Every structure is written in C-alpha cells, then in structure tokens.
Recover the amino acids of this structure.
C-alpha cells in the first residue's frame, strides 16, 4: 500500500489526506464518517465500537496514525461524539450518541441525597 500525503482543509483545520494507491483520497474525518455509516448496525446502535468493529486497525493501516488521538481531538472539536465502552469506545456522528443519564445520573442523585448534599 502506497501512501501519499497532501494538505487539505477539513472542518477548519489542516489534516493529512492519504491515498491507498487506488486513487482513493480521504481525510481522517471523511474516512471515519464513511466507516461509521457503513459499519454501524442501526438496530443495535447508531455508532461503532472502535476496537470490535475494526475501526482502529483499519484507520492505522490506511493513515499510519493513531486513531485514538484523532477521535479524542475530533470529540474535543465537536465533529464526533464518543462514549467509553467495555474494551474501547463507541464512536458516533454528532447528535447521534445516546444520552448518558438513566443509571449514572440516578445513582449520583441517590448518593447526593444520602450524603445530605441534595434533596430528592
């Protein structure tokens, strides 16, 4: 696999664009969006598991870069969403991640009430 790098503007920042030798040029964000759309199972989740779906390995092979750092930066910039999951992380397109409230928030509220720091 031959890789070719060029500079391209993507979501307001300069990123590496790779070519896999077949004329396919993608930015890391375009690659990630296409991966999520292709490999998610909407009957189970709107996102993909970074490890179990093969995203991390495929990203590393295509770009020769660390997918974890890319996802962290993208989440920080608001172009992706992510939740910790057993064995890795779930990656979502913006606005598609499920709300994280039910169990966690209920447990936190119960503890705060028990500590006398909040009312029910």
């Amino acid at each position: 696999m031959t890789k070719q790098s060029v500079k391209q503007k993507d979501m307001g920042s300069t990123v590496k664009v790779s070519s896999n030798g077949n004329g396919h040029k993608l930015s890391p964000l375009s690659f990630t969006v296409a991966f999520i759309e292709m490999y998610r199972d909407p009957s189970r989740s709107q996102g993909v598991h970074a490890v179990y779906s093969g995203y991390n390995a495929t990203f590393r092979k295509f770009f020769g870069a660390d997918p974890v750092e890319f996802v962290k930066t993208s989440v920080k910039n608001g172009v992706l969403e992510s939740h910790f999951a057993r064995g890795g992380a779930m990656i979502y397109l913006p606005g598609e991640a499920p709300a994280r409230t039910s169990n966690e928030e209920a447990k936190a509220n119960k503890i705060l009430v028990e500590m006398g720091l909040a009312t029910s």
Notes: The chain has one domain: 6-114.
